[in-house]
Design goal:
There is one protein chain. This protein has no helices and no strands. The chain is low in regular secondary structure. The chain is elongated. This is Fructose-1,6-bisphosphatase 1.
Length: 68
């Protein structure tokens, strides 16, 4: 464990690969990671493309019958 820094591992890469090796096969390997970084600013949502959706489609209603 002397080769692994406890803090301060910095990288601009998008991936991190670790191989955990134990001298005692019965001992569990434990790894705690914490990511700290800045997220890129979020853009406001874009309006939907095409015409604005209207009310749901209603099937045509039969004409009302008039009784004489």
């Amino acid at each position: 464990m002397d080769d692994v820094p406890e803090r301060g591992l910095l990288s601009d890469a998008q991936s991190l690969f670790l191989e955990l090796v134990s001298e005692s096969p019965g001992a569990p390997l434990i790894l705690g990671l914490r990511y700290e970084g800045e997220s890129p600013p979020r853009e406001p949502p874009k309006p939907p493309m095409g015409p604005t959706p209207g009310p749901p489609h209603q099937p045509p209603q039969p004409p009302a019958r008039s009784h004489p």
